Each structure stands twice: as C-alpha cells, then as structure tokens.
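QA checklist item 7 of 12: single-chain prediction sanity check.
[x] sequence parsed
[x] length recorded as 113
[x] structure emitted
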Amino acid sequence: MYIRKKLQKRRSPFETKMYAVKQVIEFHRSKRVVAEEIGISVSLVINWVKTFEQHGEAGLQSKKSHSLSDGGGELERLRCIEKKYYQQLEKIEIPKKFQTILRENKNKNHMMP
C-alpha cells in the first residue's frame, strides 16, 4: 500500500519573488520560462505578479515578517513591562518571607520555658 507523505509548504524568499516579478514585468520574460528557471509552478509566478501589481513589494513579503515588523516594537515594550513586573514581585516577596521567618522565630522563643 502506497502512503503519500504530506508535502510541506515551502516558502519562497522575498528576493526570489521579486526576481521572478522583475523578470516578467521589466524584462518581459515568459512566466513559464521564469517558473522553470526558478523551479516553481507557473501559477506561483502568476500569483506573485498579480500580488505585486495590487500591493507592491509589501504584498510579496511573508505575512509572518509583516506581523513581526509591525508589532515588534510593541512586543518588545510588553516584554520589558513583564520583566519589571516580575522584578517588583520579587522585591515584595523577599520582605514577606523575612517577616514570616521573624514571626516563626518569635513564636518559638515565646513557647520555650
């Protein structure tokens, strides 16, 4: 019995997409020829050209890099806030633990005859 492995999506780098689009738009090369040269399907080149015409270079960048670049500053700010929060918690916990130890020692001293 033949079991077909699930093919993983292979993401093409932005530079590859731009190269393909530039070859088609600026140098008027065939989409099929460009696709064969790069080793991808013609439909990918067609989609990249359409996306570039509609959204420019930003449309060809991966969604993951978009989300990281758009919210990267916000994410870093939140990490900094979280770090400060835990530092403050630690500063509060140390005196609480010390007070607990003092109370326990005081109670032990009062119980001794």
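[x] summary fact logged: Helices lie at 14-25, 31-38, 42-55, 57-60, 63-111.
[ ] second reviewer sign-off
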